[in-house]
Amino acid sequence: MTTLLIAEHDNGSLKEPTARALTAALAIGGDVQVLVAGKDCGAAAAEAARLAGVTKVLHAESDALAHQLAEPLAALIVALAAPYDAIVAAATSTGKNTMPRVAALLDVMQVSDVTGVVAADTFERPIYAGNAIETVQSPEAKRVLTVRSSAFKAAEAGGAAAVEPVDAAAAVAAGSAFVGAEIARLERPELTSARIVVSGGRAFQSAENFRKYLEPLADKLGAAIGASRAAVDAGYAPNDYQVGQTGKVVAPDLYIACGISGAIQHLAGMKDAKVIVAINKDPDAPIFQVADYGLVGDVFTLLPEFEKAL
Amino acid sequence: MKVLVPVKRVVDFNVKVRVRPDGSGVDLQNVKMAMNPFDEIAVEEALRLREAGKASEIVVVSVGPAQAAETIRTGLAMGADRGILVKSDFSTEPLGVAKALRAVVEAEQPRLVILGKQAIDDDCNQTGQMLAALLGWPQATFASKLVIEGDAATVTREVDGGHETLALTLPAIVTTDLRLNEPRYASLPNIMKAKKKPIDEKTPEELGVDLTPRLKVLKVVEPKGQRSGTRVATVAELVDKLKNEAQVL
Ligand SMILES: Cc1cc2nc3c(=O)[nH]c(=O)nc-3n(C[C@H](O)[C@H](O)[C@H](O)COP(=O)(O)OP(=O)(O)OC[C@H]3O[C@@H](n4cnc5c(N)ncnc54)[C@H](O)[C@@H]3O)c2cc1C
Ligand SMILES: Nc1ncnc2c1ncn2[C@@H]1O[C@H](COP(=O)(O)O)[C@@H](O)[C@H]1O
Known about the structure:
The structure holds two protein chains of two kinds.
Chain A: E1 2-6, H1 16-28, E2 31-38, H2 42-49, E3 54-61, H3 70-80, E4 86-90, H4 93-105, E5 111-114, E6 116-119, E7 122-127, E8 132-137, E9 143-147, E10 162-166, E11 176-183, E12 196-200, H5 207-221, E13 224-227, H6 229-233, E14 254-258, H7 264-267, E15 275-280, E16 293-296, H8 299-309
Parallel strand pairs in A: 1-2, 1-4, 2-3, 3-10, 4-9, 5-9, 12-13, 12-14, 14-15, 15-16
Antiparallel strand pairs in A: 6-7, 7-8
Chain B: E1 2-6, E2 9-11, E3 33-35, H1 37-51, E4 57-64, H2 68-78, E5 82-87, H3 94-108, E6 112-116, H4 127-135, E7 139-149, E8 152-159, E9 162-169, E10 172-176, H5 188-194, E11 199-202, H6 204-207, E12 216-221, E13 230-232, H7 235-245
Parallel strand pairs in B: 1-4, 1-6, 4-5, 5-11, 6-10, 7-10
Antiparallel strand pairs in B: 2-3, 7-8, 8-9
The complex binds flavin-adenine dinucleotide and adenosine monophosphate.
């Protein structure tokens, strides 16, 4: 058994979902090798080599891989696929974009968003916005998986694998080109890996209030900030703050939902948090049904109090 | 330019599904069904392209049971021109659907296929990418903005840290994210008109595809995690519980 794990990185450094997906890859059993494919991504490859449990790092360099476009990246993965029994990536926006393309080129049905490894060919994954968990067995000779990183702990550093350059000639751009990106610079912890997440909903009424009431609390707690879709749609928070079925899935130690009603699509993104706090002025809001601690009241008075009490 | 929009019949997004006690699946009897919300957004985007003079014909296609014709009708009532139903007795999997869609694309020759990014029942998020791979077409998933000029599509995509913009050469695949647009409701006259619009029926055999699922579902269970649901009266009590009982602060 050998698994190829596709690294998530920004050329300069490895992203945390890689270490989490590695834990899932190791649970499958056998050797795990990591592909770091990019442009000037040697530093990320070196980081991957230090992850405990990795037996080899494949380092692919190409202009076509600079922005992780699906077409060249999938073509490269398929060209390298022959020796592997499983190909795994974190279910990040890059993983979700690329892996089904790999699966189709290999004529394999992908297993998306794996939250548990039962056996080398059997996996758990959420369906219906997490309202049910299915166990699926894949008969494919080569299994293609994406892994929900919030469901796995990050593998530790401590490895010393060899980094081997690989031919990236297969990575050819095909019909799509990168024009530009607007990536937010984070001053606080990243949402999907933060230990504490403070989230706000429609209750805040404006972007100004959203910042004014949530940021001091998040700063005090060293927390990441999340949002409901309603808050994002209304422009109170940027789109990459969205937590839920169709946004980010988080599983922090503590999730504090402020002025969020608790629609199933929102719950899908946070109900695996260890401890959930709900603050809402409506005592019947569905969010209280999934909360460990519920506080009924107005966020505009309670949040400043909360921040001062810490 | 012809635009193809694949639409899936799924459980309505407001329904909280129940797992069957025998673990064989979720209970779909007497549950309200609807078009997958992301596919409504895809239909809406195609309609806007037609209204802007960029698209000439919009074909909606669904792979599923006979009742999927209702979902196609919803698309026709929104304004699509005609429908194609690929009949399947199996619950569909993205790879099989992508193969059926490839056959439809080869017959219909659209320049653009707009799909939802994810079906809210299987939550797979695969079909558009798979179709792009099978056709050898470029893809732009999770689109929040789409601009077509001649043979070029400029697409803004929602990615983990923010947005990115790609330039694609048509023919291409686009999958929709929630913020691409706000889908319209079908008006009563349009619902009436849709009844007369044609829906072509095809079998998987006619398309030369096998829709038998590959993955074997061994069991389906309720998610774990009952919560204590303790109500606290004050912020001081909350902080005390978080520090001393839950020990997360
Ligand atoms: C296909 C699809 C996908 C979706 N995906 C997602 C997703 O990924 N994530 C997501 O979040 N949503 C998603 N949604 C939307 C979801 O259905 C809800 O509409 C959304 O989560 C509601 O956001 P909200 O709780 O902030 O707003 P509301 O439902 O309007 O709730 C606001 C809450 O704030 C409370 N409140 C108001 N004022 C105050 C105050 N001053 N103090 C205290 N409490 C107050 C109210 O009592 C209410 O409970 C999706 C919907 C669809 C159709
Ligand atoms: N059975 C189907 N019939 C038509 N379109 C489908 C079907 N299944 C999936 N799709 C399309 O593929 C998208 C993504 O679905 P999925 O990959 O299952 O999450 C959906 O939003 C639809 O646009």
